[in-house]
Amino acid sequence: MTALDILDSDKGCQLLENLRDLTRRFERGLIALGYEIIESEHPIVPIMIRDTTKTADLVRFLKDNGVLTTGLNYSVVPKGDEEIRCHIASDRTEYDIDYVLDVLRSFKLAV
């Protein structure tokens, strides 16, 4: 009942708007960096890597830099559809989003 009360409150509306803003910020940043994504309003943002080895390398690189993501490789997804799923949460900040984008930028520069 508490969760429903929050959803229907001003606080719930603010949390949802913040989540949407952070998701858009992250998606715009990924596109600017040249990453292929599937755009949507959903707070799970897939980064299409399309290669099993590169997906595993990037997931490891992100983890080594304090970023937890989920990599989906063959045989979970078809070959050529390998991706990394990034989960945006409403309690994150613009700094958090920018930090992840900086880590992703440094990975692109390293490969």
Feature tags:
alpha+beta; Aspartate Aminotransferase, domain 1; 4 helices; 4-stranded antiparallel β-sheet; 111 residues; 53% helix; single chain; 14% strand
Helix segment tally? 4
Name the CATH superfamily classification: Aspartate Aminotransferase, domain 1
Sheet bearing the most strands, described? 4 strands, antiparallel
* Tally of discrete structural domains: 1
Strand content: 5-15%
Query: Which CATH class is shown?
Result: Alpha Beta
Distance between the first and last residues' Cα: 49 Å
The succession of helices and strands, N to C, reads HHEEHEEH
What CATH architecture label applies? Alpha-Beta Complex
Structural Rg: 15 Å
Number of strands: 4
User: Stretches where pLDDT falls below 50 for ≥5 residues?
Assistant: none
Overall mean pLDDT stands at: 94
**Class from helix and strand fractions:** alpha+beta
Fill in the CATH topology. Aspartate Aminotransferase, domain 1
Strand numbers in spatial order across the main sheet: 1-2-4-3
- Principal-axis shape: globular
Helical proportion, percent range: 40-55%
What is the subunit organization of this protein? single chain
